[in-house]
Amino acid sequence: MTDDHTHVQEFFTARAADWDTRFPDDGPAYAAAADSLSLSPGDAVLDAGCGTGRALPALRAAVGPQGAVIGVDLTVAMLEAAVRAGRDRDGALLLADVARLPLRSASLDAVFAAGLISHLSRPGPDLAELARVVRPGGRLALFHPIGRAALAARHGRRITDDDLRAEPSLRPMLARSGWRLDAYTDEDDRFLALAVRAS
Ligand SMILES: C[S@@+](CC[C@H](N)C(=O)[O-])C[C@H]1O[C@@H](n2cnc3c(N)ncnc32)[C@H](O)[C@@H]1O
User: Fold this and answer.
1) What is the domain-level CATH number for residue 49?
2) Can you give the pTM of this predicted structure?
3) CA of 72 to the centre of ligand 1 (A)
4) Number of domain units in the chain
5) Is residue 178 within 6 Å of ligand 1 at its C-beta?
6) Which of 15, 153, 189, 199 could be bridged to 136 by S-S, CB 3.0 to 4.6 A?
């Protein structure tokens, strides 16, 4: 882990214990976002920046008992909360940085990442590392259970087109990182960018 991560780890360590109770109604939104990956039984899927593992039950349901679900996060306290919530029954939890995944190249069918990319100090290289572990034609879902404008308003900010998640910024960044943006939704109650691993 680098110094870049100290801030992220402190931020989420302070929030880990009550992360799930702060957002008790997000379950259906996470399930719908997981569905958008069109997973099949037996697939292998990574939840990048899985936190307390809120998406893991939906991902496990999609890939079934023969599939593989892996949750990666660099904040120990978030993974501990995931274990307390029993989410380790739905996926293998790994303490790791998405910048250096302990996974073989092209070994996965898909990556789900909720609330992750805004916290990455080097999103381009990190998205490229996510591309490395996904097979050509595999999929990426960048999800947030609130849209950009609603989130900015909550924080007293306004959105701009140079924001990382704005489509004019995100599309070329994904392309440089080995992904083709396939669908982009930014509504008050949902941000979802779907991309396909370029061959
Ligand atoms: C906003 S939280 C979202 C957690 C979970 N995906 C959810 O939706 O509830 C972002 C998570 O990403 C993790 N994270 C941030 N940077 C990371 C990195 N470089 N590698 C792995 N995890 C990271 C944080 O520790 C935190 O748990």
Assistant:
1) 3.40.50.150
2) 0.96
3) 8
4) 1
5) no
6) 199
**Substitution candidate for ligand 1 out of 75, 76, 130 with most atoms within 8 A of CB:** 75
User: For the CA atoms of the chain, what is the radius of gyration?
Assistant: 16
| Nearest atom in ligand 1 to 121's CA | 19
The 8-class DSSP code of residue 51 comes to T
**Integer Cα distance of 103 and 9 in angstroms:** 22
Q: Token pair for residue 48?
A: 């990048």
pLDDT score at 160: 83
For ligand 1, atom 8: residue with the closest CA: 114
**φ, ψ dihedrals at 60, nearest 5°:** -65, -40
Domain that includes residue 178, residue range: 3-16+23-197
Per-residue pLDDT tens digits for 165-174: 999 999 999 9
Helix axes 167-176, 123-132, angle to 10 degrees: 50
